[in-house]
Amino acid sequence: MIKTAVIGASGYIGSHLLRKYREQYPDCVGTSFSNNTNELIHFDIRNPNIGHLKLEETGHQAVIITSAKPNISYCENKSQQAFEVNVEGTFNLIRKLSRTSLKIIFLSTDYVFDGIKGNFGDNHPTAPTTVYGKHKKLVEDEIKSLTDNFLVLRLSKIYGLKKGDKTILDEAANLLTQEKQVLAASDQYFCPTYIEDLVNSIINIQELDLRGYMNLCSPEVWSRYEMHKKTAKLMSKDANLVTKINLYDIVEMKGRPLKTSMICNRLIGETDCRFISFNDAIEKVADNYRKNSQ
Predict the structure, then answer these.
(1) pLDDT score at 294
(2) Residues 132 and 109 sit within 8 Å (Cβ to Cβ)
(3) Is the CB of residue 110 less than 8 Å from the CB of residue 72?
(4) DSSP state of 126
(5) Phi and psi for 34 in degrees, rounded to 5?
(6) Exposed, middle or buried, 18 (CB in 10 Å: 0-12/13-18/19+)?
(7) H-helix or E-strand containing 226?
(8) CA angle centred on 91, ends 43 and 149, rounded to 5°
(9) Rounded-to-integer distance, Cα 284 and Cα 294, Å
(10) Which whole number is the average pLDDT over 106-113?
(11) What is the Cα–Cα distance from 202 to 215, expressed in whole angstroms?
(12) Which pairing describes strands 222-223 and 189-190: parallel, antiparallel, or unpaired?
């Protein structure tokens, strides 16, 4: 395992990555802007002072940037504040890291694609339709001019299997348990990816010292409607609780990409990464709530 610092370790992905790295390197650096704990170092990416992190001095070989303002609506409504974090701050951090021996891993998104046809390959032209996607594209385009010691990983929707983690499957199962309606778009498709598979894949990719641009997600393509209907069935809940909609029926969703499924040619050809069956994942989350009702 490569000793890696996690910038943005209080977030969902960052916290899982840091936990894994610290299994082998207990002193791996993890930073946070808002979550002040003894386990994390305060770090403002808008003014990225990497000197006090002492990364090279403590044997770190890589830095993974998970810090971002990822909320799509926030980016649309407070674009300047989001830009300061997602673009300006990230640029400044990458510039400073490029002067060190540390490999830079930047987590991007399937939202850099236009979402028209789906099945986007690693080298497909990026054409984002959202402010968040445009921010990620700016960093993707700029990083190669700052350093050649980098890796850009484009992720899809990430989920967990723990009850109460409030990721996509858990949220729906929780609503169904309460006999509440679940609005589910049937026209939005993506590649939901289990958090532990993501973490293990990143570590695998690091150990192979891969660089450049890669899509990283499960190969399965699902819509919200398909996954939530399956969840209701496994929980023996009324299927009518899952209401089929088009994504743009929700006003604030207009303009978001509909088909962001990705083909991971580099991942398939250059690694041995494996992913849990999404049917098995739905079964596990449904079981979390079935047990509670018995």
Answers:
(1) 47
(2) yes
(3) no
(4) P
(5) -105, -25
(6) buried
(7) helix 224-234
(8) 100
(9) 16
(10) 98
(11) 11
(12) antiparallel
